[in-house]
Specification:
- The complex is a heterodimer of chains A (about 350) and B (about 325).
- Chain A has 15 helices and no strands.
- With about 350 residues, chain A is mainly α.
- In chain B, strands 1-2 form a two-stranded antiparallel sheet.
- Chain B is an all-alpha fold and about 325 residues long.
- The two termini of chain B are about 35 Å apart.
- Chain B contains 11 helices and 2 strands.
- Classes of the chains: A mainly alpha (about 350), B mainly alpha (about 325).
- At the A-B interface, helix 4, helix 6, helix 7, helix 8 and helix 9 of A face helix 2, helix 3, helix 4, helix 5 and helix 6 of B.
């Protein structure tokens, strides 16, 4: 940058100057090299007629890294070469993480698309033999809606009230204890939540009772800590001034919370709750234990009989193992993923649209 | 200061307590305590229902590999093989996921252009939104067949390492496949924790390193990584907890057998969670109770790992 030539050169600055001014690779070098690597590797692979997307990506990445590091080491020296090596490594890590995401979405879309239609979504498996080319997921959608809905109804009041307690009331030791155990509770394996309800149901009703309500409670155990954590963060964002203004007007504390604090954070709370729903709507293991895995007909009653749900439907179809079963499983997976994605993006949109202006 | 104003400036909840306040505070407090109660209830009910089978068990629960519990009397079962499989699968997943997750976190915080960084962070969060049963389906439907030739190559060229001794499974449904899927599933949580702590590195530390002429990598090595170590370790342990308890992906991918085996490329091993999901529908006699006992072991392991993780994270943020 600065032109060292204008400075009067001292008698022995020769070597120092050389050490200060390193040659460096041009800015366009990485992009150009990556493009040419990709082209050359593609050409070579096509010449050997063994073109595969994964092989191509791997060889391109490898040749890019090798050439960059050697070129950099020769021109710029060891430290810069290490830096460039790590940079390519870090970019590689990110691509490595995106690869499974793309792969999962693409596989589900490609395999699930054939069977994913109005018929599939609107009929149940009642009277359909596992190997027949018929049947659909309506009963599973019904079950998923009912069970997840009830789980939400249970966990939202408990979760939000706990968050209110932690933010507005709790002080000192009890606050630390509850926060810690909420964190620990987020780590409960889903299958253990299922076993908990199984054990509870055996004590309350005796063995052999599977119904939707049991599934809903097991999901609520998994959902409550998620709701608490997200609501807590949202409630903390409410400015102190708002609360104090309300107190100054003589409004009692509980009216302040219900009329000022909760409405202010409503959008954030909604986002958190929707993300929590997206988390539990795909839970499978607890529902296999609590809501059963063999229901084939439509059942809206949470308190009587087995209830199918989308994730359990996928699992049970895979266990049957025929070609038609796999097709059904993929189509159901597509249904489930679309539902989860919809919730996910809707939540983000709400969060962004109604975010308090001062937050950014 | 204004001592004369004291009566007026007193905090609101003096004198008469409003009934609404009392009720609302009670509800909030009750919810908080209910959570503690639920957690205690999970432990209590699991112990109550596991007890009959543990008392009747004729084998040592902790050292036996066989699972012979679906009988009306004299069950003989143990979690040795299951616990081994659980820890092995989770440990491999952790080894695979942690370096990549740290790389992603560094990428999002320090390498990616500011504007797209948020969107890229999103994409990684989307990985966490995909249900585990879909990962399982992807594992058997796509990944396992893809990995078969890779495994064959590994037994051929790396077979001298005991872990990779052949013959490789022809279905690809091995513990290594399950671990790869688990690694993908725990990437988001380790990334999220690392990202948070990398963001908190004081700007002064980073600029000091850069001012001394450090390259970006040297800045990260000298300023970011030492500062972020506790966050990364805590995140990795949370990921470990998740991998230990993950059920469906493992249950769908592994073709199970109850053995203690280090052969990563052959069918074998099983995890506690997957075993419960697979066995539960067919459990009779002492079966259910025995599965609950296995669940209790899983609960204890994950509880210990999670508490350790939270402790490390909390201590790290206190030091900062």
């Amino acid at each position: 940058m600065s032109t060292t030539t204008t400075q009067p050169p001292g008698p022995e600055t020769g070597p120092t100057e050389a050490a200060l001014r390193h040659a460096s690779l041009p800015r366009y070098f990485p992009t150009a090299l990556l493009a040419s690597c990709a082209a050359v590797v593609a050409g070579v692979l096509l010449a050997f007629s063994s073109f595969g997307a994964i092989l191509w990506a791997l060889l391109t990445a490898a040749s890019y890294v090798v050439i960059t590091v050697t070129a950099s080491a020769r021109v710029e020296g060891g430290r810069k070469a290490t830096d460039r090596f790590v940079t390519s490594l870090v970019y590689g890590c990110f691509l490595l993480a995106i690869a499974p995401l793309v792969s999962v979405l693409w596989t589900v879309l490609r395999n699930g698309f054939d069977r994913f239609d109005g018929y599939f979504l609107s009929v149940s498996m009642n009277g359909v033999l596992p190997s027949m080319d018929a049947g659909g997921v309506y009963h599973a959608i019904v079950g998923t809606l009912a069970i997840t809905g009830m789980a939400t109804l249970i966990s939202v009041p408990i979760g939000v009230m706990t968050a209110v307690y932690l933010v507005e009331y709790a002080r000192g030791r009890i606050k630390r204890v509850i926060t810690f155990f909420v964190d620990v509770m987020t780590g409960i394996p889903s299958i253990v939540a299922g076993l908990f309800v199984v054990a509870l149901w055996m004590v309350l009703f005796g063995p052999g009772h599977t119904n939707g309500a049991a599934g809903a409670i097991s999901l609520a155990v998994l959902m409550i800590p998620v709701v608490v954590r997200s609501s807590e963060e949202m409630l903390r964002l409410v400015p102190r001034d708002l609360r104090e203004a309300s107190y100054a007007l003589g409004v009692p504390r509980w009216r302040t919370i219900t009329r000022v604090v909760l409405p202010t954070s409503a959008a954030g709370l909604t986002t958190g709750i929707m993300l929590a729903i997206a988390r539990v709507i795909g839970e499978t293991a607890p529902l296999i234990l609590t809501a059963g895995s063999s229901a084939v007909s439509i059942n809206w009653n949470l308190f009587d009989g087995q209830m199918m749900s989308l994730p359990v439907f996928i699992y049970s179809q895979v266990r049957m193992g025929g070609a038609v079963n796999y097709e059904r499983a993929w189509a159901a997976a597509l249904t489930l993923i679309l539902t989860v994605m919809l919730l996910f993006f809707l939540a983000r949109m709400i969060g962004r649209a109604f975010a308090p202006k001062s937050a950014r | 200061m204004t001592t004369t104003d004291a009566p007026q400036a007193a905090p609101p909840p003096t004198g008469r307590r409003r009934i609404g306040d009392t009720v609302f505070a009670g509800l909030a407090r009750g919810s908080g305590l209910l959570i503690l109660l639920i957690l205690a209830g999970v432990a209590a009910f699991l112990i109550i229902q596991a007890w009959p089978s543990l008392a009747a068990n004729t084998a040592n629960f902790l050292t036996t590999q066989e699972w012979d519990a679906n009988v009306r009397e004299n069950p003989a079962f143990g979690v040795a093989a299951l616990a081994f499989g659980t820890v092995l699968a989770a440990a491999i997943a952790l080894l695979l996921a942690t370096p990549v997750a740290v790389g992603i976190a560094l990428f999002i915080v320090y390498y990616a252009p500011r504007r797209v960084a948020a969107v890229l962070g999103y994409l990684v969060d989307l990985l966490a939104a995909i249900p585990s049963v879909v990962y399982g389906l992807w594992g058997i439907g796509f990944l396992a067949p893809q990995l078969v030739p890779v495994f064959r190559g590994m037994t051929e060229y790396l077979g001298w390492i005991p872990l990779f001794s052949g013959p490789a499974s022809t279905s690809g449904r091995t513990i290594l496949t399950a671990s790869v899927v688990l690694a993908v599933m725990i990437l988001p949580i380790i990334t999220a924790m690392s990202r948070d702590v990398f963001r908190q590195v004081p700007q002064g530390h980073r600029e000091a390193a850069l001012a001394m002429g450090a390259t970006r990598w040297e800045m990260i090595r000298l300023a970011v990584l030492p500062f972020g170590r506790s966050g990364v370790v805590g995140g990795a342990m949370l990921g470990l907890g998740r991998a230990l308890g993950e059920t469906m992906a493992v249950a769908m991918i592994l073709s199970p057998s109850l053995a203690i085996s280090f052969d990563l490329l052959r069918s074998g091993n099983q995890t506690i969670a997957a075993h419960i999901a697979l066995q539960y529908p067919e459990a009779t006699g002492y079966g259910v109770s025995a599965l609950i006992a296995a669940g209790l072991v899983l609960f204890a392991i994950t509880l210990a790992v999670n508490m350790g993780a939270r402790y490390i994270v909390a201590r790290g943020s206190k030091e900062a």
